[in-house]
Amino acid sequence: MIKYLSANYIVPVSSAPLKNGVIAIDENGVIQGIYESTSSDIIGKKIEKYAGVIVPGFVNAHCHVELSHMRGQLAKGTGLPKFLSSVMSSRDAKKALVVKHMNAADEEMYANGIVAVGDHVNTSLSADLKNESKIHYHTFVEIIGLEPELVDGKVDAAKNLRLNFDEKFSSITPHAPYSCSKQLFKKFKKSVSEDNIISIHNQESEEENKLFRYKTGDFLDFFEVIGKDVDLLKAQARNSIQSYLPYLPQVNKLMLVHNTFTSLKDLDFVERMGREIYWCFCPKSNLYIENALPKVMNFVNDNQKIVLGTDSLASNDTLSILEELRALHVEFPELDFTQTISWATLNGAELLRISDRFGSLEFGKKPGIILLKNMIHLKITDDVTVERLA
Ligand SMILES: [Zn+2]
């Protein structure tokens, strides 16, 4: 049974928006056709009309679902090093409680129109949820380690943890430049195959740049608190990204997450390396932890690939890509929705290698069909809400 749906606009993402367009889906939500309002193919068809804009399901490129029980627990505006200390001292909780909050987070994301998630883990706690969820997950198993002598064990442990998750839709990844030694980066590079997608936290805090440039700042206090020896760290006289990027394997798909303090010089450096990067913005998390946002227009003007993430409920009060879009459009009114919608959908699907199914409204795909209500033409306002149509 084919259903025909129409709205004020259909935004396929992979092609131009269709005013009063029509989309046909079968009973499984697989797209059977997309039509202009004047198409002869839809004459005589029974068409369900909606007020709003139809878009494909959202891709949340960055989350830590296993931290969902920490919603509302951590103070805002502390800066990253203090935030990390708080996460480490309060993340432990009874398994049943963690599972309960993870399940609720999964349902919240589904209701908010999210169809796929790039999810970081340090434990296997989310494995059962991911097997059963209506959402597609790609799991990034984090490697963390500043002690050069423990490098081999760290990589082996990550590989073992990964066995709990779908092999095709998981990979191992360094957690962040400040939490991995140079030796660990090198070992990682030797240990992964070319199809291992990398997702690393990058320049979330100016303190990270200070640590790499001058070996100063709040990260040194953080390391002292967690008992890490930083004698081997040397000031590099350049930002973190310029120090560690050369250690990452060149051909692997690479997402850098946050980029709140990535400079124009850093972008030039990346371009000179000839490296394609997916830049993931998590604006609400940045506002929560650092009360700062990335210089988004630098990336736009440089034609960089951008994706969006919610980060975890430890640093966000919602898991909603629409909310992330809204935060960006409020701060950067010059952004156009027809551009940012690809950040929220197709770019993330390409990164996670699931664009055969997700990310755009195209024949044969099953991307989730989302109605954005209360849009004014193609603008996100305070009143826009999400309804799932399929
Ligand atoms: Zn994160």
Automatic annotation (TrEMBL):
InterPro entries: Amidohydro-rel, Metal-dep_hydrolase_composite, Metal_Hydrolase, MTA/SAH_deaminase. Residues 53-373 form the Amidohydrolase-related domain. Keywords: Hydrolase. GO terms for molecular function: hydrolase activity, acting on carbon-nitrogen (but not peptide) bonds. SUPFAM superfamilies: Metallo-dependent hydrolases (SSF51556). Gene3D superfamilies: Metal-dependent hydrolases, Urease, subunit C, domain 1. This is Amidohydrolase family protein. The lineage of its organism: Bacteria, Pseudomonadati, Bacteroidota, Sphingobacteriia, Sphingobacteriales.
